[in-house]
From TrEMBL:
Gene3D superfamilies: Tetratricopeptide repeat domain, Winged helix-like DNA-binding domain superfamily/Winged helix DNA-binding domain. It comes from Dongia rigui. PROSITE patterns: PPR (PS51375). This is BTAD domain-containing putative transcriptional regulator. Residues 135-276 form the Bacterial transcriptional activator domain.
Length: 679
């Protein structure tokens, strides 16, 4: 469920009149920017230095860019005047250098125009002010430190080139400083880029535009760095973009041959082989599936009366009843029911069509009403059109005076009886054909899934695959493979998007094979939820519930998903319906309910639901957070110690990172509770 299966709009406030160190700590709240948009950048130091919107006709001094770079890279964003003067000028005396610095500060303030808070100077030091928050280098640093992939990506895209690219008038001391800082920034840039690629592709569904934007920045900064190509190939593979991975590798080969006359390193070739090998794991396309038999077709013949015939009104009522039965049978998925409007026109001999070429019926249901000593009886029989064999016959009370009152009940009873007979006959045929082996493998896999440890998950997947090898059209086996894949992804810590992506492919193939099976849509929704594709997930959960509205298992999974979407009240209503249908529920029901109550801030209620579970191990996080919020510090610390014994070296942030919430704030309740218990 949400918290037990333990891991992630960008706008932030930047102060206008506060020190930049306060800004980096998120304390400012006066100026609000969307970081990384070109319109937000006032001063560029990465690449060619530039004041984007200069005030009036005043030119920003070149030494001013050097001054800003020195301050932006200083640990406290502040440096002594003497140190700045020594780095910027080669004067014979210190006094002359300090004089030059005073003049530079005046020119920077004048050139800055509206940015009067760009610098903050006193008699001994100079620092960056709040206005410096719109320097691209500062925003890159904010994104790098934020821990948010979105912020980090936007900051990364500001890195247009080397620090102060093309600058010429420098002192030897400044040149040395610039060389060291450029190397450090390059290292930080490529480290950030590699981390961003991993985060973007964590769920296998990164935006192609984002990946290509990172690739353009990486290769523009250093087109000969093989490690960049390697990171990009791996990212494209994790995202399922295999053609792009191959194209990048060919681009690398051409560059290395042109520049150095050498082939790619073995490590890079190995990454490409691993990426391309994953293509063989994809489920086969539906068009390549083994031919499936068409669904059997059931036709209802026009009912008749045995003498003495009923009146015309009764005859019309009888035909309406049979039509209602046929319509009721239309909800079954194992066979199709032909429209009575057509089948009533078919001539037949005791239920066997005289000409079956148009309707192509496999089974027919024919009948008549006959009088008995006390009441009239509706006699129905089902025949196999292939050999004329009577497969089933039944009698039902047909008393006109009571028929209107019992009309719907009778139609349901007859439809259920006919459906059972058709399906039983189909099962007998399947046994004779040997297809029952596929079903047995499917049942073996289901039994293994009752315990979700990694070895049993993989054994279950092998059983489902054996079922598919025998019957590629078994939609539920494809859906179960999707289930084993997303559970394995969770068991492995959510770090392999290939597994999750293949799970989605299997689920969508299952839904394509049998769009009427609710479980196939349930798996599509479950996998998409962990891919953070929330709109698609919500659509699929709703579709699954519409197809199976009274399945307790479906309801509890939908309840958990609704909580993740931020709809805790709707989730709780679904949970209550699920428990009403399955009052002696297995542990994962209470697990889901407790997760929902945490979101509703009902911590005592969540603890009560956890008490219904046979084992507390899967809800230690929930119990820790709930007791912490209730002020039960000793209990919270005890549960947190138990959790860390099971998962060593796990901190509160990593304990909640897999939770697939639509809104990041939804994680905060549990995260706050875990942090309270930790201290």
């Amino acid at each position: 469920m949400t918290w037990a299966k333990s891991p992630i709009c960008l706008s932030f406030a930047l102060a206008k009149h506060h020190h930049l160190s306060q800004i980096l700590n998120g304390l400012g709240n006066t100026r609000v920017y969307r970081m990384g948009l070109e319109s937000d950048i006032e001063i560029r130091l990465l690449g060619l230095p530039e004041l984007v919107r200069p005030g009036g006709a005043v030119i920003f001094p070149a030494k001013g860019f050097q001054l800003l770079a020195l301050l932006a890279r200083a640990p406290s964003k502040r440096l002594p005047r003497k140190e700045l003067a020594a780095l910027l000028w080669d004067n014979d005396t210190e006094a002359a250098a300090l004089g030059n610095l005073r003049q530079l500060l005046a020119r920077v303030r004048k050139a800055g125009g509206a940015h009067d808070d760009l610098l903050d100077a006193d008699t001994k030091t100079v620092a960056l002010g709040g206005g410096a928050a719109l320097i691209d280098l500062s925003l890159f640093e904010i994104g790098y430190r934020s821990g948010s992939p979105e912020q980090a990506l936007r900051g990364l895209l500001l890195f247009r080139g080397e620090l102060l690219e093309g600058i010429t008038e420098t002192t030897d001391a400044f040149s040395h400083w610039l060389m060291v800082e450029r190397a450090a920034l390059r290292e930080r840039f490529f480290s950030a880029a590699s981390s961003i690629l991993i985060e973007l592709t964590r769920f296998g569904r990164a935006s192609e535009q984002d990946l290509r934007a990172v690739a353009d920045r990486m290769l523009a900064l250093d087109p000969e760095r093989e490690a960049s190509y390697r990171s990009l190939i791996e990212a494209y593979g994790r995202n399922g973009m295999h053609e792009e991975a191959e194209r990048t590798y060919r681009q690398l080969i051409a560059m290395l041959e042109r520049e150095f006359g050498v082939p790619p390193q073995p490590e890079t070739a190995a990454v490409l082989r691993r990426v391309l090998a994953s293509r063989g794991h994809q489920p086969g396309d539906l068009a390549q599936a083994k031919p499936q038999k068409a669904q059997p077709r059931v036709a209802f013949m026009a009912p008749t009366w045995i003498m003495p015939a009923g009146d015309p009104g009764q005859s019309a009522l009888l035909r309406a009843l049979v039509e209602d039965i046929a319509n009721e049978l239309a909800r079954y998925r194992s066979f199709v029911t032909l429209a009575p409007h057509s089948s009533f026109k078919l001539a037949h001999d005791s239920g066997v069509p005289l000409d079956n070429s148009v309707l192509r019926a496999d089974y027919t249901v024919s009948g008549f009403v006959k009088p008995s000593e006390r009441e009239q009886l509706l006699v129905l029989r089902m025949a196999d059109c292939q050999n004329g064999e009577i497969l089933w016959a039944g009698e039902f009370s047909f008393r006109p005076e009571e028929l209107v009152r019992s009309f719907r009940l009778l139609s349901l009873q007859v439809a259920s009886t006919v459906a059972n007979s058709v399906e039983r006959h189909l099962l007998d045929v399947m046994r004779r054909d040997g297809n029952n082996q596929a079903y047995l493998h499917y049942l073996d896999g289901q039994e293994l899934l009752k315990n979700s440890d990694l070895p049993r998950l993989r054994r279950a997947r092998r059983s489902f695959q054996q079922a598919i090898d025998l019957n590629n059209g078994m939609a539920l086996a494809h859906a179960r493979i999707a289930q084993t894949l997303y559970l394995e992804w969770l068991a492995l810590g959510g770090n392999d998007p290939e597994i999750l992506r293949h799970g989605r492919e299997s689920a969508e193939l299952a839904a394509k094979i049998d769009p009427g099976a609710g479980f196939t849509h349930l798996m599509c929704g479950s996998v998409a939820l962990y891919q953070r594709d929330f709109d698609y997930s919500a659509e699929k959960f709703a579709e699954a519930e519409a197809l199976s509205p009274n399945s307790a298992d479906f309801l509890v999974q939908h309840a958990d998903a609704l909580s993740c979407f931020g709809e805790e009240n709707a989730g709780w209503a679904h949970f209550e319906r699920a428990v009403d249908l399955n009052p002696f529920a297995p542990d994962h029901y209470w697990w889901a309910g407790a997760s929902i109550l945490v979101q509703k801030k009902d911590f005592a209620g969540a603890i009560e639901l956890c008490a219904k579970m046979a084992s507390e191990n899967s809800v230690l996080r929930i119990l820790t957070a709930c007791h912490a919020h209730l002020g039960n510090r000793s209990e919270a610390r005890a549960y947190w110690r138990r959790f860390q014994e099971l998962y060593p070296d796990t901190d509160p942030a990593s304990a909640v990172k897999l939770a697939p919430f639509k809104h990041e704030s939804s994680k905060q309740t549990v995260l706050d509770g875990l942090r309270m218990a930790e201290h």
